[in-house]
Amino acid sequence: MRLGLFGSTVLAGIVLLTAEDAARQQDPCSENIPSVDEHSANCAAVAQVGQETIRSQAAAFNNGGNARAAKGENDRAIADYNEAIRLDPNYAHAYFNRGRAYAAKGDNDRAIADYNEAIRLDSKFSVAYNNRGIAYKAKGDNDGAIADYNEAIRLDPKYMPAYFNRALAYFAKRDYDRAITNYSAAIRLDPKYTGAYNNRGTAYLVKGDSNRAIADYSEAISLDPTYTDAYNNRGNAYILKGDSNRAIADYRTALKLDPTLNEARDQLQRLGVSP
User: How do residues 75-94 score in pLDDT, each as one tens digit?
Assistant: First the structure.
């Protein structure tokens, strides 16, 4: 984020102040203010302005970190988040964003530590629970991940990513029925989420339900005709049904979209046909 500063100094009519007058103008907390109530109110205002200035500075570093992170400059982003946190140690979003940067670097332990702090400062921070769940899953702790996704969903029942991520964790645990239930919930919340259709199709496929798998892969392809994995996966489902001709067509389409997709190439070789 670029912060534009007004570059010109404007000089108006000059008013000369005595040193004493200047001091009182700079310090509304001056003891010379006759009213005690006025004195207290001014002191509180000064303190508030000071706090707002610090928060503004912290927000500027946080936003700068976000801009760097968006460009993949995670180390520089972390340096900005560090400064935001130094200025405002209670800035939950700065901890959260630093956690995201650490996660992008593959440092899930530090990411979890920052998400912990963000949650400590804001116990209703549903996205922090979701992201901590992702970090736990990356470390192989699917149960810990599911617990966090559960909390994210409890706090925000319409938070689609938590359902999708919980499905991934259940799939990793080979609990395919719960995976399907959660992918279905994600689809209800976002009917155009191609990844959820594709993944639910795969859950159906490993359960041996090739018809439902094909239906889901077909929906993903309908929503995104360039979805390479959906073509490849639908080819696998057609193989399970014994429909090699349709499988071949899907594998060839997948390879046309992504010539580096070795899985589709290998399947065609097994079927004894050329790409």
Answer: 999 999 999 999 999 999 99
Q: What is the largest CA-CA distance in the chain?
A: 97
Q: Angle formed by the axes of helices 142-155 and 160-172, to 10°?
A: 160
The helix/strand/coil state of 204 is helix
Measured CA angle at 177 (ends 115, 231), to 5 deg: 90
Measured over the CA atoms of residue 158, residue 164, residue 169 and residue 175, the dihedral's sign is positive
Which distant-in-sequence residues (6+ apart) come within 8 Å of 177 by Cβ? none
Q: pTM of the prediction?
A: 0.80
Rounded CA separation 192/189 (Å)? 9
Determine the length of the chain: 275
Query: Which among 109, 53, 115 is positioned nearest to 81, based on CA atoms?
Result: 115
Give domain 192-275's CATH architecture.
Answer: Alpha Horseshoe (1.25)
| Same fold? 54-117, 124-181 | yes
Q: What is the per-residue pLDDT across 187-221, written as a single tens digit (0 to 9) for each?
A: 999 999 999 999 999 999 999 999 999 999 999 99
Measured N-to-C along each axis, helices 142-155 and 126-138 cross at an angle, to the nearest 10 degrees, of: 170
Half-sphere exposure of 66 (CA within 13 A, CB side): 14
Which residue in the block uniquely carries the two structure tokens 């927000």?
A: 59
The number of beta carbons lying within 10 Å of the beta carbon of residue 190 is 15
Cβ neighbours of 19 (radius 10 Å): 7
- Eight-state DSSP code of residue 95: H
| Domain 124-181: assigned CATH number | 1.25.40.10
| Amino acid code (one letter) for 202 | T
Q: Which CATH class is domain 54-117?
A: mainly alpha
Domain map (residue ranges) of the chain: 54-117, 124-181, 192-275
Question: What distance lies between CA 88 and its chain's CA centroid?
Answer: 22
